[in-house]
Amino acid sequence: MPTLEASTCSLSSSEPDVSIAYHQAIPRCVRARSHVAALGLALIAWHGALDVLAGQTAAAPVALASLRVRGPLPRATVQEAMEGALQTYGQCVHARAAERGRVAGELHLRVHIEANGVPIAASVDWSNVGDRPLERCVTAATEAWRLPERDAATLVSFTMRVGHGAPTGTDRDVGAVIASSERDDGHLPAEARNTSSNGERQRVVRRTWTPVDGGLRVTGALTEARVARVLRTKTAALRRCVSVPPAGGGTPAPWEGLLSLRIGGDGRLSEEPVVQLPGAPPSVVACVAGVLRDTRFPAASGETQVLSRHRAAPHS
Q1: Which residues make beta-bridge pairs with 210?
Q2: Mean pLDDT confidence for 14-30
């Protein structure tokens, strides 16, 4: 454990190995030296009757750590946004703990922040908490961040630790699901899959997969035209992903999707794609991400960041 020493409440970007622990009932901050230089920053907030200095235990901790910032926004600026969201994150955890009795574990989050300072694509890439409503709550709280404008987008990733004791769920690794050679919905419970138990395809709602006008944003080495050309070649595969059995009664509604891709200089995705498709089942999101992960773009002199909006509308 690092040794705590008195400090002011200012956050300094000149010391990237600083950890900050604080509590609502204590109007001061304490500073600790971190031994994980690669991770840089650990920002810890404790909610409940906690006194860190006295060594008391916490009722319901929320810890944010392993902050990584790629882009023009300074680390300290992102840190301030995280600090501002701590109360909301705590409310998310308390609400779910009140309903379930206990939630515990880690969530690995990623968020794309537009050049205008507005986050538009937060996602949970890995979790062992086993609570999807909690994931939705914390991603919504992350997308509520507001940061200064810059000349380009910024990608932020961090870890959230919640609760005490053993994790309340099993590992859910989006990357592993996408990389699996098995069918895209094999990791889901039987009732959530697109295929029946005997492997036969159920009746599906056929959907289109069309780009939204003006919905493509490309920053980096590749041009918008080259990216759009490659994405068009994947239209048929993505139509198959979004054509699934209907969920519940009534008329199926269209899905509005947002894709966030980081393409390396070799034309391959350098990170797992972020796929937001509200209303679609998890297997559809995993299928779309799998198609994108296998997509190859032209080689270029550097990385390219892509945001692309699409619409999956039921055939009339």
Answers
A1: 311
A2: 34
